[in-house]
Amino acid sequence: DLYYTETEVNNLLKDKLVFNFDCVGDGDSIMFVLSKTALDEENKLKESFRTLRSKVSTNSNNYGASTEYIQQELVEIESLFSIFEDLMFMADFTKASDQKDIISERMNRLDELCNKLPALYEHAKGILPRNMEEVGYEYAQAKNKGVYLDHLKVHSNLDAVSELLKEVLKRLRQGNLESVQEDLTTCDTRIKQLSEQIVTEDHAFCE
After folding, report:
1. How open is the CA angle 123-169-130, to the nearest 5 degrees?
2. Among the listed residues 115, 127, 121, 124, the one whose alpha carbon sits nearest the alpha carbon of residue 59
3. Residues with Cβ < 8 Å from 60, sequence gap 6 or more?
4. 4: phi > 0 → left, psi -120 to 50 → alpha, else beta; which?
5. Is residue 74 within 8 Å of residue 56, measured between CB atoms?
6. Facing residues of 31 across strands?
7. 3 state SS of 49
8. Smaller CB count within 10 Å for the chain: N or C?
């Protein structure tokens, strides 16, 4: 048998958190040893969640139609914390560690979403509609002068941009950032090309 002195035991456990459970009420017990580092990580994760929830509350007006999705994510993350705490209580530390990783990943994704949404909504609901309106104005002005523009298919091109923009907004509402920035850039490019083509035809007509 291997024996340790009291001093040696104290040194071994100095950075550990010890749980002692009475199993049968007759003096027999099981001792679980948990690293204090793990406990610190849990507390930091909970604090990060409180910070994220506060951030969402403070900036909710900047999340547009994605607000409902974000609130649902917060509820689900809270439920994941409950599962994590149950696993810790049952001393299933391996599953608890896996659960902690899942929570951390969900929180990081939600935080990234909250950071990106304001600029994406400004682009999708502010910048692009204004640029489309400007192109419509340029088109109307040129047509009034008698400039031939039918070959540019301005209306169908603007309709295509509008449809792509609807898809982008649908994805944002669902908390899905996949290809959103790329599609917004595509919209920018098509609008810019239309504007340049209208201006070119207008200048050629006036020469």
Report:
1. 35
2. 115
3. 67, 70
4. beta
5. yes
6. 20
7. helix
8. N
Global pTM reads 0.79
List the one residue out of 111, 113, 123 whose CA is nearest residue 52: 111
Residue with tokens 């999708």: 124
Structure tokens at 124: 């999708």
Say whether 178 sits in a helix, a strand or coil: coil
Per-residue pLDDT, 41:
75
| C-alpha–C-alpha distance, residues 166 and 146, integer Å | 33
Q: Rounded to an integer, what distance in angstroms lies between the CA atom of residue 30 and that of residue 20?
A: 6
Q: Closest Cα partner for 60 from 42, 74, 47, 48?
A: 74
Please, where are the H alpha helices in the chain? Answer: 6-12, 36-58, 67-89, 93-122, 128-145, 154-173, 180-206
Provide the residue-wise pLDDT of the chain in tens; the chain has 207 residues: 545 455 544 554 444 444 444 444 444 444 444 555 566 777 889 999 999 999 999 999 999 999 999 999 999 999 999 998 888 888 787 888 899 999 999 999 999 999 999 999 999 999 999 999 999 999 999 999 999 999 999 999 999 999 999 999 999 999 999 999 999 999 999 999 999 999 999 999 887
Map residue 30 onto helix, strand or coil. strand
